[in-house]
Known about the structure:
The protein has about 375 residues and is an alpha/beta fold. The protein is built from 13 helices and 14 strands.
Amino acid sequence: MANQFQRFELERIxxxxxxxxxxxxxxxxxxxxxxxELLAYDPSMLDxxxxxxxxxxxxxxxxxxxxxxxxxxxxxxxxxVLVTVGxxxxxxxxxxxxxxxxxxxxxxxxxxxxxxGVANNLNADRRTFSLDPDRDWALNVDSLxxxxxxxxxxxxxxxPNNPTGQILTDSEIDTIIAAADRSGAYLLADEIYAGAERxxxxxxxxxxGRYDKVLSAGSLSKAYGAPGLRIGWxxxxxxxxxxxxxxxEYVTISTAKLSNHYLAPLVLRPDxxxxxxxxxxxxxxxxxxxxxxxxxxxxxxxxxxxxKASAISFLRYNLKIDSVSLVERIIRDGSVLIGPGDYxxxxxHIRISYGLPHDYxxxxxxxxxxxxxxxxxxxxxxxxxx
Length: 386
Ligand SMILES: Cc1ncc(COP(=O)(O)O)c(C=O)c1O
């Protein structure tokens, strides 16, 4: 019997509230780039776009864009790249190409649970393996070895991780690759937060090239600060990319031509890419200087393993209320949107974005603070040790 359709709860709450609340602290990228900031890197591009015919662009991504993407993946050429409408399409194509009803998939948790829902809707057999909240989100190797069997078709990770902002160590990656290799599974690595590191200047290396069945997904939405261009990609073996492309034709045909032919290749030009990563990190690091003391002020309620990358933090809270009800309460009483931990697979947590302009961030946090204190009072105070 077919599974009941599972909707994507996180995106649903965001679509419902992000344009309504006064403070949106749910966005996982840094504050977005303005078009004029981007065009300043090549002022002649505006005229080229004004002359451009608004026809369809290259369905698989313009050759220039695919080459621009391939240069950041060791051993890849333009033929290993398919351009998609965001990383969300890239991930969707991987799941829907590789999984048939009953096929096993092993998904890292916590995670951006797109794959969890899509796999349900494909009637796949879903297993999870975890990052351990009590060991600073280190990989739980036992859970990996349990989740991956000789029938696993796909293993899915998000690195740097949404929602925790943690980065897998080299040996953890080797362990995951060894498990994939043993089962012959494809490894989907959603690497959308690479380039948004908080504590280091190094861009988190891609897993592409370390195992022959890696499918690496990325996009311009997070580290590059340009989600509105709606450009994502998948880099992988050519034979499987052809299969993905056949699905892409059903869903989107191609990305928007102005992004595909002009703006995205400009974003990916090496000097522009470095400047945009720097811009994103600046937001993240600046926001952190305000955010860290705020957490300290709430340490009776909140605790956090500091994120290594991304503009988001995944905080454990010491209240009895479940995370969805808490977030609904913060929306209703504070007009602030944040993400409930249950929508990332972990209860008693909330995801808060901090890569935002100071005033906006602090006002939003002030509202959250009030609601947390109110809830704690109603519950008769907080238990010791967040
Ligand atoms: C891990 C992860 N993958 C994919 C996406 C989708 O991003 P895009 O805007 O590139 O479609 C998101 C968005 O939040 C994300 O966090």
